[in-house]
Specification:
This protein is an alpha/beta fold. Helix content is about 50%, strand content about 15%. It has an eight-stranded parallel β-barrel with strand order 1-2-3-4-5-6-7-8, surrounded by six helices. About 35% of the residues are buried. The chain binds erythose-4-phosphate.
């Protein structure tokens, strides 16, 4: 399973990239707002930090405008993935970009039927939003499992990018049900390293080592 970081914060991306923990980056309009930077400049800098897939989202809802914006975004760097909303114009744009040899990420997916349409439109990635479904008392991870089963039934090549990931449990479950990618906020990703027994064990090893009076040289 691949790890993308879901952020527009360059410092976070740089740290995780240097640690070798991420395979790519996803952004969305809310994350661009949070970064408070021009989208082209931001995506350009992210693509300088990583050569993994970097999703940049179009802002318009009309097909022609999406095509124009997607082209502008994809010209930023070869690793840009054009992120498109799961609407009819978004799916049409997805098909056209795929035919042009460009990578796409169809976002805001909340049902298996939507995911089937994204696969029919030859999306590179489908982004089902796990956390936002959980917020409505629908189990978001069940959707990931359903899409996995459907895509495998028909050998659809679209990759399942589990999005709106909020917890370590989401990451574990996404891996168990066979998501191809999870996109995770930096804080959630870094928290995966923590375990109280690791901390406890380390504390006693440090104390015992000190008692040996030794140094490794
Ligand atoms: C995915 O591509 C989205 O950017 C993101 O995962 C949304 O997460 P949220 O529901 O926490 O905003």
């Amino acid at each position: 399973m691949k790890f993308f970081v879901d952020t527009g914060n360059i410092g976070e991306i740089r740290e995780l990239q240097e640690a070798g923990l991420i395979d790519g980056v996803t952004t969305n309009p809310s994350l661009v707002l949070k970064a408070d930077r021009p989208i082209k400049e931001l995506l350009e800098e992210i693509c300088e930090v990583t050569d993994g897939p970097v999703s940049g989202e179009v802002a318009s809802l009309e097909l022609d405008d999406m095509m124009r914006e997607g082209k502008i975004l994809s010209d930023i760097a070869p690793n840009i993935v054009i992120k498109l909303p799961l609407t009819l114009p978004g799916l049409k744009a997805c098909k056209r970009f795929t035919e042009q040899g460009l990578k796409t990420n169809v976002t805001l997916c909340f049902s298996a039927n939507q995911a089937i349409l994204a696969a029919k439109a030859s999306a590179t990635y489908i982004s089902p939003f796990v956390g936002r479904l959980d917020d409505t008392n629908i189990n978001g991870m069940d959707l990931i499992a359903d899409i996995r089963r459907i895509y495998d039934n028909y050998s659809f090549e679209t990759q399942i990018l589990a999005a709106s990931i909020r917890t370590g449990n989401h990451v574990r479950e996404a891996a168990l049900v066979g998501a191809d990618v999870v996109t995770v906020p930096a804080a959630t990703l870094k928290a995966l390293v923590k375990h109280p027994l690791t901390d406890k064990g380390l504390k006693s090893f440090v104390a015992d080592w000190k008692s040996t009076g030794q140094t490794i040289k």
